[in-house]
Design goal:
With about 350 residues, the protein is α/β, with parallel strands linked by helices. It has helices spanning about 40-45, 95, 130, 140-145, 145-160, 175-185, 200-210, 225-230, 250-255, 275-280, 295-305, 325-330, and strands spanning about 1-10, 10-15, 30-35, 60-70, 80-85, 120-125, 130-135, 170, 190-195, 215, 235-240, 255-265, 285-290, 315-320, 340-344. A hairpin with a 2-residue loop joins strand 1 and strand 2 (about 10-15).
């Protein structure tokens, strides 16, 4: 079968690999229908993810059909259409029982990093009974493609904000995760969402589709001043940092009001500075980390009920045999690309 591998730093290659096999009774083999490319795939390629294995098949964002299941899988059957969780988790350890699945003692970010992922024709999914979610009949594969990763990440960011009625939420980064975070913030009760990005195309999408009520571009706008004007001088009740830019972490804590929450779902390639003396007295709460993607069923229901949509995110589609070309296209910042879909 065709598989795109992380060959070495800066190098990917489409090769032939053997079909995956059941290794553990809680495994499932999924025939991949659609997959996507994630910015974190580039972090692997750039050498920023030290646990990534050379030769691993990339990718962790996909939907497909179950073609084989292990003997201990009781909630799934062959032929089920499923959406995959970006996290591998056992559901039984101390962390999993408390919903902290990103820190599962037997899992974590495995697919497309430490074990073969989904940019292939077939993929083995460990702990499939927790990591795969049935897609409702009313939804297509396309509807469900982003549920287990970027939509879960957006929801995670909004959930970390502990949103209350009449809260103003600022979202830094109007890319795919940011767009998902904006929608989820409104679902969770935010009365005003402010979208911030240096890419005017993405800002316009956020405003046109009513994901954001106000859009701000740091190249043109005084971000801190405008946000204070919009919040009676206080600052944003919470900030979701979904950009991971050079100065976006600093912006996040600066625009948050005193006693506000800064939720960081961005993945940085360099260390960030926490200038405690400069922020002393703001009494900020920082929440960070990889996504605890435990709400996939709920997110599928929100899509089914048309409260959230990810359709607009797919800028272009490719087939698996053109995936190396897709990586180049996705990496070209002049394309205004949000997400790609790869048909297997």
């Amino acid at each position: 079968m065709k598989s795109l591998i992380f060959e070495d730093i800066g190098k990917i290659k489409l090769i032939e690999k053997p079909l995956p096999q059941i290794v553990h009774p809680r495994d499932a083999i999924v025939k991949v229908t659609l997959s996507s490319i994630c910015t974190s795939d580039y972090h692997i390629i750039n050498g920023a993810v030290t646990q990534a294995q050379k030769g691993v098949t990339l990718g962790h964002e996909f939907v497909g059909e179950i073609v084989e299941i292990g003997t201990e899988i009781n909630n799934l059957t062959i032929g089920d259409r499923v959406s995959a969780n970006c996290e591998t988790f056992c559901g039984e350890c101390w962390f999993c029982k408390r919903g902290y699945i990103n820190n599962c003692t037997k899992g974590g970010w495995k697919l497309g990093c430490q074990i073969d992922g989904c940019q292939s024709e077939y993929v083995r999914v460990p702990f499939a009974d927790t990591g795969l979610t049935k897609i409702p009949e009313a939804l297509s594969y396309k509807d469900a493609l982003f549920v287990g990763d970027i939509l879960s990440s957006g929801y995670f960011g909004a959930e970390l904000c502990e949103i209350k009625q009449n809260d103003t939420i600022a979202v830094i980064g109007c890319g795919p995760v940011g767009i998902c975070a904006m929608q989820c913030a409104k679902v969770l009760g935010a009365s005003k969402v402010i979208g911030i990005d240096i890419n005017q195309y993405r800002l316009d999408i956020a405003l046109k589709n009513k994901y954001a009520d106000i859009i701000l571009n740091p190249n043109n706008d005084n971000i801190s001043e405008i946000i204070k004007n919009e919040t009676a001088g206080r600052g944003a009740d919470a900030v979701i940092e979904a950009a991971g830019g050079v100065n976006t972490f600093e912006m996040a804590w600066q625009i948050a009001r005193p006693n506000g929450i800064v939720a960081i779902v961005a993945m940085y390639e360099e260390n960030q500075i926490l200038p405690l003396p400069g922020m002393y007295g703001k009494n900020l709460i920082f929440k960070t980390g990889g996504v605890d993607a435990i709400h996939c069923s709920k997110l599928l229901d929100l899509i089914k009920d048309k409260k959230i949509s990810t359709d607009i995110l797919i800028t272009k589609s490719y087939t698996l045999d053109k995936i190396e070309e897709a990586y180049k296209y996705f990496d070209d910042k002049t394309n205004n690309c949000l997400k790609l879909s790869i048909t297997q």
